[in-house]
Amino acid sequence: MITKLDIQEKDGFLIMDDFPTNCIFNKVKTGCGATTIALTNSENYIIAVPTTELIENKCYPIKDAEGNVKFWKKHERRAGLSPVVNNLFGLYGNFTLELKKKLKDYLSSVGVKKIICTYDKIDKLMEFINPKGFKLTIDEYHNFLKQYSFRDKAINGVLAHFKEFKSYCFLSATPIPNNLKPAIFNDIPEYIANWNTTDDITVYPYHTDKPYMVAAKFIKTYQAKSSLNVNGIESKEAYFFINSVTEIKAILKQTQLTEDDYRIICADNPKNRRTLEEYTISSSADAPKKFNFITSKSFEGVDFHSETGLCFVVSNVQNRHTLVSVDMDIPQIVGRIRTKSNPFRNKVVHIFNTKATDHYTTFEEMEQIVDKEVKAAQERADMLNNTKLSEAATKQQINEIKKVGIESYLSYQENKFVVNDMVAKLQLYSYYIATVVYQSDKSLRETYAQSGIVTTKGKWHIAPEKFVKELIVKPTFRELHKRYCEIKANPMTFDLQAIEIEHEYPILGRAYRQLGIKELKPLRTIKSIKEALGEQ
Question: Tens digit of pLDDT for each residue in 295-311?
Fold first, then answer.
């Protein structure tokens, strides 16, 4: 049962003293300052979050309390006490002896304690704290479903301990839908914030066979025109949300962007560094660039500041990691740019392709298939629990489950075999996204129309595809001339776009070689260039 909760709000932000306790709290709006409540009130709090990026974003904000701007370099950002936010301890990364000492010193100091940590640190924290002395907030908890396939150990660690704390609150603006909610949440009361104000959200869906080529085309439009004109308003920065470093690299190769132009915000690990090769990994704490590429590590909770940045989502059915959900991902992405004066703050362009099939298992049929598997798993669990297995046989059975890994419907908890329905719900979620939402342009638009409004309680506007096409119409000669001169004014930089412009308008290449950049720059028409070259 979901209960409406009257809240205190001001200018779109929550101004509550605390969250409701021992519950799921649907805050409805992203970027409404909910985490700030736990960070600034008078209670001892542990805030568990999905990513390191989110912790660094809170511990090393670009703006301090006085509004001073500082971009933190990589070597300046480290786990421990925040140098900006008073009394905030960030716990992430390797749990080294040095970090353990910092934590012990912090816990032994006087005053209210505020620890923000990644999900995997909850299990490790238990040996350092008395959980009854802390309230626990699990932020962006919908990730328990979305990320279970590769973060099961961290998520299970939270689920094993959350009831041991003074109180707990599972927090999200996009909670897990009822039909996909794992059984562990069934008996937990759910509250929904009753906002007086609503947000206008505009989605521009664009269906294409080649989403990443269209993303590259948007970048080239920004370059050629120096901005993107949306309803008469200019966007001068672009934020591309793409959960694939391989696809980000493909776009960078296609557009020949230099390090001055791009920022890639993804996990800084050996695998991603190998994939990206010569391209540099950045952070949300680094200075923004004209083109910002963001993986799922920053889809939620991370604040971006931009006066004219426009958000783009790129989804490719050939790469399931890039398929964003309308009810859980899109509202999160729309709320990432926090600059209130930004006219594009609640707008997002969704570039996607589809993989329609004539014959496939319906979602209802898939629910029945998964339900049978869950019942069979329960049968096995009952049999194993009712059979007096020896210690060796029990250990062997546990190892067999581990070998199957995340695909197993069984797990071993508190000395008994239990059904892991998180696996079942994840299967249904993945199937729904891939085969229902992205089945066709029509189905995705219908999902926006149905789910979006329900999810955010806001006013959703779905723009026609024609509108997006008009944003990337072929640049005029004058616009390409201006871009060509900008490139050639910096002869140290190789730019593939200059070659493409020359290919389309060979006269620009001839004029540059014969007249030079100073004489070419004021000649803004083909006729004036021909006259300067002495051509008829």
Answer: 988 888 788 989 999 99
